[in-house]
C-alpha cells in the first residue's frame, strides 16, 4: 500500500521585534567634575609690606585662601608704580615657564590670569630693569590639574538697584549674556561689581549660589559715599541663579563679563 507522506513541520515562530531604544538607553555625557572652587574675591598677596619687587628679583609668596593641594588659581593681578615698563613671569618656580604679564611705567594695569600654583604659593620673576608693586586678588582655584577654562562674554547687566543692609537678591545668570542654559556646565560666573555705600561705615557685597551660603572672603568692598569697582567669581545654583547681598545700604550694579566652563 502507498506510504503516507510525513506531515510538514510547523513554521518557526517569527522573531521578536528589536526593542525601541529609549532616552534612558542612549549614552549619557559624563557628569561634570567640580574641581574648581569660586572664592568671590580676596586679597591673596600685596607687596606693600615687603616692598616692591626689585629688578631681576625672584620672590615666592603664599596666596591667602589657596590651599596646598591647588594646582592653578584664577587671579586678578594689578601692578603699579613701576620704575619703567617691564614684565613679570608668574609660575611655580624661577624657570621660564608660567605666565608672562607686561606692565607699563608708573600707571596701574590689571588683568585676570590663570596662574600655576604649588603648595598654595606662586613665584614672581621681575624683568632686569624694572621695580614694581604688585597686588594679587584670588577669585578661585582648581585642584588635580583641572584646567580653568575662563570664557569672556558680551557684558550683560543683571542688577542695578539700591539695596538694604542684609537684603538678598536672587539673580538669574544661566542662559544670560552668552552663558550656557544649564547651570551644570558653569563652574563659576565672573561678575563686575560696582558699589557705593549710603552710610558712614564701610561694608562689603557678596555673591554666592542660590542654594548655598556666602563665601568667607572679603568679596566686593563697599566704601562710604564713594564708588568702588571690582571683580567677583561666584558658583551658580542648580536653578541657574546666584544671590547678591550687601552688608550695608548701597547702590549696586552687577554685570556678567565671563564664566568658567566645566
In short:
With 262 residues, the chain is an all-beta fold. Helix content is 0%, strand content 50%.
Let me know the average pLDDT: 89
Count the DSSP helices. Answer: 0
Sheet having the most strands: 4 strands, antiparallel
Which regions are unreliable across 5 or more consecutive residues at pLDDT < 50?
1-6
**SS-based structural class?**
mainly beta
Which characteristics define this entry?
262 residues; mainly beta; four-stranded antiparallel beta sheet; 16 strands
Describe this protein's structure.
The chain is built from no helices and 16 strands. It is an all-beta fold and 262 residues long. The strands form four sheets. The protein has a four-stranded antiparallel beta sheet, with no helix packed on it. A four-stranded antiparallel beta sheet has the order 2-7-4-5, with no helix packed on it. A four-stranded antiparallel beta sheet has the order 9-16-11-14, with no helix packed on it. A hairpin with a 7-residue loop joins strand 4 (86-91) and strand 5. The radius of gyration is 27 Å and the shape is globular. The N and C termini lie far apart (87 Å). The relative contact order is 0.21.
